[in-house]
Structures are given as structure tokens and as C-alpha cells.
Amino acid sequence: MPSGDRGGTLGPVSFRPGALDGIQTSPTGGQVEYLLARNSVIREFRKGRLSRLDVCDAHPELIRAATNLGRTMGEQCPICEESDLVDVTFVFGSKLPAGGRCVATQAELARFWRRKEPVVCYVVEVCCGCRWNHLARMYPAGAGVDAVARKPLRSRTKA
Ligand SMILES: [Zn+2]
After folding, report:
1. Model pLDDT for residues 121-148, shown as the tens digit of each residue
2. Which residues surround ligand 1, an ion (CB under 5 A)?
């Protein structure tokens, strides 16, 4: 019923999580894994084993979300090295669209963190230039989880 919500929903996406029962409680470990996976994709691309078609496959909806709602990461795209990366946060949980809700503002994200129901936040980095995209991290929030990633969306810079 709340139809004029900010944000939007996403069609079929590759990073859609499975059941929410197994909410991950060690987001830090997950983040490292995503970073490793990302770096290995980039390595393979640089070696020529993956083409741009393989790695720059962002769903049009994801590009749209990134264009409208993405937050600049202050980092250049590792693939085209021309555009800046943005990150987009999707929240999954009960009463949310199956494809996740794309979070528009930090204030909206904070509201999800305060929810009584658990949610899982997925942060995807996207290049609107070449359509590179990769899951950057995910973390549980809501339901009294004291979100480890309560810090800003761009905590990767200190890594
Ligand atoms: Zn790019």
C-alpha cells in the first residue's frame, strides 16, 4: 500500500539472497570474501580471461538505481578506468519487495536499521559508464542487530 515510497525495486538480480533465515552474523568475514571475489574478477579481466561483456553486465534497473540513487565512492572504475564508481544499497527483508528495496538516503537506511524485523543490506558497486558491477558487502541490520556497518556506506576506503 505504501506506493509513493522513495527508492525503488529491482527486477531479477544476480545477488538476490536466499532465505533470510540464515542471516549472516559475521558481516566482516563476508565483506572480505566479496572483496576477494571482486579482486579476482578484476585480475581475470586484466589478464584477458574475462571480457567486458563478462564483467560489465549490470541489469538496466541496477544502472538506473545507480544513476538516481548511487553514492559516489570516490574511486575510479577498475574496468573502464574512466568513470567513478557509485555504490547502491539494497535492503531485503519481510514486508519488502522480493527484489529488495533500493535505499535512497542515509536517513532511510537508518530507518531500516531501527526496524524490529531483521533485514539484510547489500551494497553493490556500480560503474554507470561501462556497467561493471559487483557485490561489495552485505550485513544484517534491524531486529536489534547493532549494525556493524552502521558506519557510512563507504567504509572500504580504510581497508
Ligand atoms: Zn567502468
Report:
1. 999 999 999 999 999 888 888 887 765 5
2. 77, 79-80, 83, 127, 129-130, 132
